[in-house]
Write a structure and sequence with these properties.
Elements lengths: L1 E9 L3 H18 L6 E15 L2 E13 L6 H4 L8 E9 L2 E7 L8 E11 L12 H6 L1 E4 L45 E11 L5 H25 L1 H4 L4 H21 L9
Parallel strand pairs: 1-7
Antiparallel strand pairs: 1-8, 2-3, 3-4, 4-5, 5-6, 6-8
Helix pairs in contact: 1-4, 1-6
Protein name: Phosphatidylinositol transfer protein N-terminal domain-containing protein
Organism: Daphnia pulex
GO molecular function: phosphatidylcholine binding; phosphatidylcholine transporter activity; phosphatidylinositol binding; phosphatidylinositol transfer activity
């Protein structure tokens, strides 16, 4: 089992981030769905009084299936049978806290689980135990800092229109993010997303390799996704929550069409 806490500072308020995250995830879902692969949303509904992280929460519950197929890691395609790359995701979004559990019930069953707990907090990435981890968990946890402007990304992932170092928001005047950009951001426009990732893959001889691959993939996704949130700022900054929910409904309809008929697009997990 591996446990890492990714800390991702953003030049946004906590309230702004909620809108940007929801909008960018819908956009990214469209970019990664088509031709029988991608994201299938089965349920999206409010939940109330659910015990998460030893506290009662209310918010939005979603149940999704990720049909990976060709987007699965190359070395895993030789080990797992065809049709087994179907991952189920349950998510409880009680912003500013959220919890996501990903499993593979068809093949790995109880031998695989990926859990992501997130807390969104005003200020920089300097809160040591924002998710109230036990002493045992703190000993196992590794802290990883993600900088959306300065961390290197591969050439295949790079898109100029999603580059925080050259993007400048026409509507808010924010950006570009260069050098020690954290020091120049106003306090009321700085927040940090803390993401605690716990992964367990029980397969003798492969556990370490697969768990490390999953962690590296999560770090890559977190970096690219948060670059996207910031660089799409002008698209979502004036949206209300009602606007966001309407957009999500339209995206779900389009996802169903793309999953059945469209061409697969977007990032892979290679």
């Amino acid at each position: 089992m591996l446990i890492k806490e990714f800390r991702i500072p953003m030049p946004l308020s906590v309230e702004e981030y909620q809108y940007g995250q929801l909008y960018a995830f819908s956009v990214e879902s469209l970019n990664n769905t088509g031709g029988g692969e991608g994201i299938e949303v089965l349920r999206s509904e409010p939940f109330k009084d659910v015990l998460l992280n030893n506290k009662r929460h209310s918010g939005q519950y979603t149940y999704k299936i990720y049909h990976m197929g060709s987007k699965a890691p190359g070395f895993m395609k030789h080990l797992m049978p065809k049709g087994s790359f179907e991952f189920h995701e349950e998510s409880w979004n009680a912003y500013p806290y959220s919890k996501t559990v990903i499993s593979n019930p068809k093949f790995m069953k109880e031998n695989f689980q990926l859990v992501i707990e997130s807390m969104h907090h005003a200020g920089g990435p300097d809160v040591d135990n924002i998710l109230d981890l036990s002493e045992e968990m703190l000993k196992l946890r590794e802290v990883v800092h993600v900088d959306i402007a300065n961390d290197k990304i591969s050439s295949k992932d790079y898109k100029a229109d999603l580059d925080p170092t050259i993007f400048r928001s026409k509507k808010t005047g924010r950006g570009p993010l260069t050098g020690s950009w954290l020091k120049s951001v106003k306090k009321n426009s700085l927040m940090t997303c803390y993401k605690l990732v716990t992964v367990e893959f029980k397969w003798f001889g492969l556990q370490g390799r697969v768990e490390n691959h999953i962690m590296n993939t999560e770090q890559r996704i977190f970096n690219l996704f948060h670059r996207q949130i910031f660089c799409l700022l002008d698209e979502w900054c004036n949206m209300s929550m009602e606007d966001i929910r309407k957009f999500e409904d339209k995206v779900k309809e389009e996802l169903d069409k793309q999953l059945k008929y469209g061409e697969p697009r977007g990032m892979t997990a290679e």
